[in-house]
Amino acid sequence: VSSAAERFDFFYFVQQWPGSFCDTSRGCCFPDTGKPAADFGIHGLWPNYAKCHGGDDDGQARRAVLGDDAAAASLSGVGRRGKCWPQYCDDENALSPWAIRDLVASLSRSWPTLSCKSGDSFEFWSYEWKKHGTCSNLEPHDYFARALALKAAHNLTEILAAAGIVPSESESYSISSVSDAIRKGTAFTANLECNRDTDGQTQLYQVYQCVDKEGKQLIDCPLHMRSKCGDDQIKLPLF
Ligand code: 5GP
Ligand code: 5GP
């Protein structure tokens, strides 16, 4: 069924804070299953290279990135630094609802869509499967089950709350206190991504944790992203 093993070095396990997805100028919509909990939700489990590849002669990345026209049109895996991750590795391999039927209840809670394009979270899961999951060397059930297990094993909302970092309209927190809390709670350093609310205030949007190629254990990140959070205080808005 699946083609040759995809070469990559680690996964980014990415979770989004729903309050920060929703309070931007773009806004959000709740899924058909209702308002999600005030908890980090899964965005994806993304195969990544430890080093971006420079040339156009890299067979693996090229094949993956040029997998279809849509992918070729938005070469998000390719930037000035080269190809940084594989994507769209097998467009024939669409996600079947049947393959994850026992995970649907759990996925609906932990991986809800907040996009206004569709209230059907399955569309979000199939998009993530097609773009990233098909490059993971995992079967769909393992891919989704491992993401769920990672979230459950390291509950970011609880980890932050234990450090006094709780959603608030008025409070803000230093980026280092957020980073330290996650390091203390998970034993590994995460990458933080911020965005801005409608007032232009910087807020914690996504947390990127690095995971081994099996999708099982957190690891030290081979690659640290440039933080878009600045050096200032950041918010964790209510949801
Ligand atoms: P953005 O440009 O919003 O940061 O990312 C757009 C999309 O590109 C993400 O949703 C994700 O699918 C992909 N992407 C962004 N950064 C990374 C990365 O570091 N690794 C991988 N594998 N995909 C990424
Ligand atoms: P990526 O940034 O992973 O390439 O793209 C995420 C895609 O999934 C976007 O096209 C977005 O419209 C869709 N999507 C559906 N639900 C969500 C959600 O809750 N959060 C994010 N970030 N994207 C979502």
Automatic annotation (TrEMBL):
Checking Pfam families in the record gives:
Ribonuclease_T2 (PF00445)
Q: Which SUPFAM superfamilies match?
A: Ribonuclease Rh-like (SSF55895)
Q: Which PROSITE patterns match?
A: RNASE_T2_1, RNASE_T2_2
The family database entries (CDD domains) matched by this protein are listed as:
RNase_T2_euk (cd01061)
- Write down the InterPro entries for this protein, in alphabetical order: Ribonuclease_T2_eukaryotic, RNase_T2-like, RNase_T2-like_sf, RNase_T2_His_AS_1, RNase_T2_His_AS_2
| Keyword field | Disulfide bond, Signal
Keyword Disulfide bond in the entry? The reply is yes
Has UniProt tagged this entry with the keyword Transport?
Answer: no
Active site located where? Answer: 43, 128, 132
Q: Tell me which family the UniProt entry assigns to this protein.
A: Belongs to the RNase T2 family.
- Its name, as the record gives it, is Uncharacterized protein
Give the organism the record lists.
Urochloa decumbens
